[in-house]
Amino acid sequence: MADADDEQHLSGNVNPWVMSSYITYSSLLLMKLLFNILLIIATRLRTKIVPNPEDKGSNKELKVGGTHPLLTRVQRMQQNDLENIIPFLMIGFAFVMTWYSPYSRAVWHFRIFFISRMLMSFCHYFSLQPFRSIFFLIAMCTNISMGGHVLYKAAAYSVKYF
User: Fold this and answer.
1) What is the DSSP string of 16-52?
2) 130, containing H or E segment
3) Strands 63-64 and 49-50
4) CA–CA separation, 37 vs 29, rounded Å?
5) For the whole model, what pTM was predicted?
6) Do 81 and 36 form a contact (C-beta atoms < 8 A)?
7) Helices and strands of the chain, counted as H and E runs
8) Strand partners, 100
9) What contacts 65, CB < 8 A, 6 or more positions away?
10) What SS3 state is found at 64?
């Protein structure tokens, strides 16, 4: 059953420390996505592969639409980040809206996700298995933990008021 703290929290009070941590780690993850774009551009320049004919310009050395193992790896790394960071942003926001105590447990969810995504990308770039899979699973478990908390709080609120 929901208690008085749940009722007060679900009425709109958000722990500012948890929100601040969420914003910090979310911003760092979004910056990581932007860094990945720069990494893709640098890899394209290094491998001399451009995606469109107009990108080639007058440079005859550049190939249009070719592939290179490193370019494919960097693009897969970006796709994997998009598939995992965006759900974190959504679940994390709902998590912040339902979290009230203790602050450190919420922050550790954000830290663990951020660190595991950074390490997973490092392992992805340098082909380090099974570590890449391990860090992926850690990040996924963090999202599942936050999602479970949100569902629990929503169910407790629903049972009490509906």
Assistant:
1) HHHHHHHHHHHHHHHHHHHHHHHHHHHHHHHHTEESS
2) none
3) parallel
4) 13
5) 0.84
6) yes
7) 6, 2
8) none
9) 49, 50, 51, 52
10) strand
Q: Residue 63 in 3-state DSSP?
A: strand
Phi/psi of residue 63, nearest 5 degrees: -100, 145
Residue 2: helix, strand or coil by DSSP? coil
For the stretch 47-61, pLDDT in tens is 888 787 777 777 777
Backbone angles phi, psi at 49, to 5 degrees: -120, 125
Return the structure tokens found at 65: 């639409």
Task: Tell me if 157 sits within 8 A of 8, measured CB to CB.
Answer: no
What are the b/e assignments for 40-56, b being 16+ CB within 10 Å? beebbeebebbeeeeee
pLDDT attached to residue 162: 62
pLDDT at position 86: 96
87 DSSP assignment: H
pLDDT recorded at residue 64 = 81
pLDDT at 2: 45
Asked whether the bond before 130 is cis by omega within 30 degrees of 0, the reply is yes
Give every residue of the chain whose pLDDT is below 70, as ranges: 1-12, 100-101, 162
User: Which domains does the chain possess?
Assistant: 4-38+68-161 (1.20.120.550)
Residue 12 is predicted with a pLDDT of 60
